[in-house]
Every structure is written in structure tokens, then in C-alpha cells.
Amino acid sequence: MSTKYRIAILDMNAGEPNEGMRCLKMLAGEFLEQEGYEGHYDVFEVRINGEIPLLEEYDIYLSSGGPGSPLVSGEEWEYKYFGFLDALLLHNLSKPDKKHLFLICHSFQLACVHWDLAKVTKRRTTSFGIYPIFKTNSGEHEILFEGLANPFFAVDSRDYQVVGPSEWKLDTLDGKVLCREKVRSHVPLERAVMAIRYSREIFGVQFHPEADSEGMLRHFKKEEKRNKIIKKFGKLKYLNMLEQLVDDEKIMRTNQTIIPNFLRLAAESIDAQKLQSV
């Protein structure tokens, strides 16, 4: 009997319209439509409704980016979300049926704060656009990045940054820093961490690997969004971003690589666990 993969998508956008959730649902749907893969995905509204998936009901989790500060404010949904993170980590440390978690941007920052694996600080200026992401030595050997150049390109949109990772704490989880942001020679600041493998089953990125060209072009060509970007970042930045969106070797390569690899490898791990338990 074939495995039916159960995927939970955690919506961290607090009700704000965005392209990320559409992309995550599309990637999950495309994965399940492949020959040999069956199952379903469900969406959980974390920050407004406090919805959290049950560990016994899902095998794979995709936790989205979102607006606002990742620094703890004491809201009820935060305690529920942090409880979910701890429960999943404890489950993986003590149970044979591992759960697989992919954290994006806001979720990535929250995990770093909660597990005290790095510092999260406010940036001097907003990072917004399509940027090169540089692999570390560990990142060069990361299986999720197979097929991506060094650097590869991704959508980056954030007011906060992850810096100062605690290497010894990551070592206790068999974790690694995999990517950093570009070198800013004119800014005497530490390069932000852009990707961490927390453990064999838990992976997080600061950027948006789910972003696709079609949706981003449509989103950024909306008059209100276009005017807002030009006012804040300038027309040259806006035009340069549109040009990069249609380059198949940039964000579409990233879109078609990282999360699809994560889903495939999670499925392979789940299948192997089931065979061992027979």
C-alpha cells in the first residue's frame, strides 16, 4: 500500500494578503500530483485563529513567512506556536517516526529566538528585492541546494535579521549554518545568516524559496504596490527587480529546487521509516 503524505501549511501572515501562501499551496499540490505520491495538505491560520496542527495527524510541515517583529510579544498564538516547535523537536529526539519541518523568514526568526540558537536584531534598513544567497562550506554539501549555483538568487523581504549563531548549540542538534547574505564592504556589520539546518528533519531559511516569477510579477505590477516600492526604494530598483523576475536562472530555479527537494526527501524518509516498522 502506498504512503499517503500528510502536509500541514502554517500560515503566519496574520491575515495580510501575500503571494507566499499561494506558492506554498501550489508547491505542496504539485508534489502530491506527481506519480507515486498521494496525500493531502491542510492550512492552519496561526496568528489570527491560533490554529496549530496536531503532530499525530501530519508528517510534513511548511511554516510561512509573515509581517511584523519576530521578537516575543507575549501573544497567545506565540505560546501555542513555540509549544508546537518544542513538541516537534522532542518528538524527533524520542520517536522513530520523524516529523519534517521547513521554516520560512518570520518562522525561521521565531525558531532562532525561541531555541536561543542565534540573535535576531532589527536591520538599519529594509532588505527588499532579489538578492544573491551565498552558501557556506556546509551549504556547498547541503542536499536541498543540489542544482543551485553559489551564489543562487532568492526573494528577500525583511526588517529583521538572524546574526551571531551559537555554533555549539547547533552542534548539539547536528545543525549547520548553510548560507549567509552578500558581503556589504561599506557596512561594518556581521553578514546575516540566511539558512540553517537545525537537525536532520528541521530546516529554515531567511529568504523566500517559495516565490515564483508569475505571482511576483503580478503582485509588483499592481499600481499600489508599484508606487509603494518606487517611493521607498526608487524606480531603478523596481525595474531591476522586474528584470530579474523573468530570469529563469534566478528565483524560478530556487522555487523549483529547495522546497521540492525538501518534500521529496521527507517523503523518502517517511517511506524508509514505514519499511523499518514492518
UniProtKB/TrEMBL annotation:
PROSITE patterns: GATASE_TYPE_1. It holds the Pfam family GATase. Transmembrane segments: none annotated. InterPro entries: Class_I_gatase-like (IPR029062), GATASE (IPR017926). Residues 55-214 form the Glutamine amidotransferase domain. Gene3D superfamilies: 3.40.50.880. This is Glutamine amidotransferase domain-containing protein. It comes from marine sediment metagenome.
